[in-house]
Amino acid sequence: MDLSLAAFLEQVIAYPTLAVIILLVLGVTVISGATDAPNAIATAVSTRCMTPGCALIVAAVFNLVGIIGMTYISTAVAHTMFSMVNFNGDTHHALLALEAAMIGSIVWGIVCWFFGIPASKSHSLIAGITGGAIALNGIQGVVAAEWVKVIYGMVFSLAAGFIAGWLILRIIEKVFAFLDRKRAERTFRIVQNINAALLSFLHGAQDGQKFMSIGMLGIALSFGAEEFSTSTFPLWFMVICSLAISLGTFLGGRRIIKSVAMDMVKLEKHQGAAATSSTIITLFIASMTGMPVSTSHASTASIMGVGAAHSIRRVRWQVAEHMVLAWVLTFPCCGFIGFLLAHIFMLF
User: Fold this and answer.
1) Which of 41, 120, 183, 341 lies at a CB distance of 3.0 to 4.6 Å from 100, suitable for a disulfide?
2) Ramachandran class of 89: left when φ > 0, alpha when ψ lies in -120 to 50, beta otherwise
3) Rounded CA separation 242/293 (Å)
4) At 262, is the pLDDT very low, low, confident or very high (cuts 50, 70, 90)?
5) CB neighbours (10 Å) of residue 289?
6) Residues of 167-183 as b/e, b for ≥16 C-beta within 10 angstroms?
7) Which of 88, 125, 272, 281 is nearest to 189 (CA)?
8) What phi and psi, each to the nearest 5 degrees, are found at residue 292?
């Protein structure tokens, strides 16, 4: 299968729906940059280790680097995304079902962004394509052996983030108990700045591969390919997705920064370092094992773990409950929208 830009443009001429799918993929990527990417820099901003403007630049740059860099290291997440659904069948209907799935994901992302909720774009994307696949091929449109990794990832990100955040903070407080406060704060400022860059890299690695895999699924369907190697992402497509996620971070990052790190729990510099370190560990393990997890899940759980370690009363549980409700609603809402739209689109 020829994955050059010229070959792609030829497929767009043959299947105009493919162009719509790619534009929708880029739209979802922009929304992810606005809603998920800011979680990587939220704690650095809330603890005054970075200014919002500087943090947004770091997030935009390292999200871009993460998409391209991690794709050359491991494509485990992309493989899971590509393999969890079955869109085989009539090419025209398959592309329409995939288009419907992407629209469902975008609609839910806009709603969550409007209310300042750090929604899981990963889960809305997965739910949307699952609904579209079921509309196309019934229950056989879901490959259970791969789809179950979504559940593993959700449980892992919440549990690992919370536990690691709690544990790392305890260790830091023990190790730095006798260090001069000013020297300690300078150290944790540096740690948080480095962690913000690493988290942005890992967010690009996680979410970038998810979105690119859906775009490549559309391209593969247009070629009539039933199988596709996730290790062959074309550079031109990686660059476009990287720019899209960075654009989203610039456009909508400030709203989510306020919701995650400023409204839910107040952190000091050493607590922020513990939270970001916890999130880095969680995302790295998930990326290398192929579990599609949400940056917002991992980051929020880490912040809650750190807050609980210091004092259970410092965590504003009402804010956390509001976020959890949005996560719980994501699967049925996006899945239903994708399923319904796919049926409607396939009528034409």
Assistant:
1) 341
2) left
3) 19
4) low
5) 16
6) ebbeebeeebeeeeeee
7) 272
8) -75, 100
**Distances 175 to 128, 181, 184, 269, 276 between C-alpha atoms, Å:** 46, 13, 11, 15, 18
| 313 CB-contact burial (10 Å; exposed 0-12 / middle 13-18 / buried 19+) | exposed
- List helix spans (H) across the chain: 5-14, 16-35, 39-46, 52-73, 76-83, 91-114, 121-137, 144-175, 181-222, 235-257, 269-289, 295-310, 317-345
Contacts of 16 (CB under 8 A, 6+ apart): none
- Nearest-angstrom CA–CA distance, 58 and 222: 36
Q: Which of 76, 115, 46, 34 is nearest to 293 (CA)?
A: 76
Name which of 101, 182, 108, 102 is nearest 137 in CA terms. 101
Question: pLDDT tens across 157-191, in order?
Answer: 888 988 999 999 989 888 877 777 777 778 888 88
Over residues 112-125, mean pLDDT: 71
- Are 64 and 203 in contact by the 8 Å Cβ rule? The answer is no
Are 311 and 166 within 8 A, CB to CB?
Answer: no
Other C-beta atoms closer than 10 Å to the C-beta of 13 total: 9
Q: pLDDT digit string (tens) for 190-199? A: 888 898 889 8
Residue recorded with tokens 């443009």: 9
pTM of the model: 0.81
- Residues 56 and 249: beta-carbon distance below 8 Å: yes
* CB atoms near residue 3 (< 10 Å): 17
pLDDT digits (tens, 9 = 90+) for 269-298: 888 888 889 999 999 998 888 888 887 778
Type of residue found at 148: V
* The two three-digit tokens of residue 41, written as one number: 């820099």
